[in-house]
Amino acid sequence: MTSGPALAVAAERLAPPAFAPGSVWLVGAGPGDPGLLTLHAAHALAVADVVLHDALVSPEILLLAEGARLECVGKRAARPSPSQMRINERMIRLARQGLRVVRLKGGDPLVFGRGGEEALALAAAAVPFRIVPGISAGVGGLAGAGIPLTHRSLGRSVVFATGHDSRGKLPDGTDWAALARGADVLVLYMALGQAGAIADRLIAAGRPASEPLAFITNATTSRQQVCIATLGTAAAAAEQIPRASATLIVVGPVVGLRAMLAPWQNATPMTPRTAERRAPAQA
């Protein structure tokens, strides 16, 4: 059975919950591949009136919101962007106009996505909402790159951390020495601009400069690129990656498994069908 009929069967056998006018769904778009959307997310995009989306949501996913008005409210560190208060106010205003509002976020809304802040704002304004989890880049991005997040021998503990604060700087409150000692595998979000500084702190805390590290850019999409380095060469490797790219950093021995897995892995993402390909086949 092809993917089209398979999705149609799922739609026929599973009744989606009502997306009521005047409500907001906080939706996780996953790491980039449209095929990694949940059925709840696909349903929300199909019936939404307005989609307020992050800058890092892939264009292939935005194509699924054919009947909605798209508004980019993406926040990028150290760049002009809407404040969180403005985004909260916009969601509330649109919902009070009786619209079905999707707040679409890359990855998962509650994993460094400010979904908790937005849910609190909606609750305070008495606006009904739903949280639709998504596959976080820290899980799906690694899988798409052929890097297991955990392994019984090489990675028995994981830490997820953000690499910058609201100013685009290294977070002052993060205890990098504790993180370095606390887990076999470190997954760092939004850390490209601080890669060298983070590597220095991890090495100073006792992690070897030879420890493997991977930069995963545009994870799970047709534009995905993976750069393998070490903690000692992280700063130089980061300089070769465009700052505008959505990049995840992984540190730990599991990175070494990519060389064995990636050549055999099929990680082709779903792509939008053209009008011609969507047409029914002739008998």
Detail the topology: elements first, then pairings:
Elements: H1 3-13, E1 24-28, H2 39-47, E2 50-53, H3 59-62, E3 69-72, H4 84-96, E4 101-105, H5 115-124, E5 129-132, H6 137-144, E6 158-162, H7 176-182, E7 185-189, H8 195-204, E8 212-217, E9 225-230, H9 234-238, E10 247-251, H10 258-261, H11 275-278
Helix pairs in contact: 7-8
Oligomeric composition of the shown chains: single chain
Distance between termini?
17 Å
- In total, the number of domains comes to 2
The sequence of SSEs as H and E is HEHEHEHEHEHEHEHEEHEHH
Strand content: 15-25%
Alpha-beta content class: alpha/beta
The best one-word shape is: globular
Give the averaged pLDDT, no decimals.
89
At the fourth CATH level, what is the homologous superfamily of the largest domain?
A: Tetrapyrrole methylase, C-terminal domain
CA-atom Rg in angstroms? 20 Å
CATH class of the largest domain: Alpha Beta
Strand order of the largest sheet: 3-2-4-1-5
Q: What is the total tally of β strands?
A: 10
